[in-house]
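Thread: Newbie trying to understand structure tokens

Hi all, I'm a second-year student working on a class project, and my supervisor (Dr. K.) asked me to get a predicted structure for one chain before our next meeting. I've only ever worked with sequences, so writing a 3D structure as a token string is new to me. If someone could post the tokens and maybe explain what I'm looking at, I'd be very grateful. Here's the chain:
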Amino acid sequence: MTARENVHQLIDNLPEDRLADGHDYIADLQDEDTTLSPATTAAIEEGLDDIRNGRTISLADYRRARGL
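---
Reply by user tm_fold:
Sure, no problem. This is what the structure looks like when written as tokens:
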């Protein structure tokens, strides 16, 4: 079985409520414009810098601070 045939079989076997997820994922794979804007790149770098320098909080603390 080819990879294409295998993908078709997987899609055919997806539950109806997951088809939209499959569609979105495959559509993302076809998107050739994967260039990030300078603002997005800067935001990612800022976040990574925060992580490297320990400026993080736990998920539990985040939820508690926001009343979640």
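A couple of things are worth pointing out once you decode it. The chain has a mean pLDDT of 92. Residues 1-34 form one domain. Feel free to ask follow-ups in this thread.
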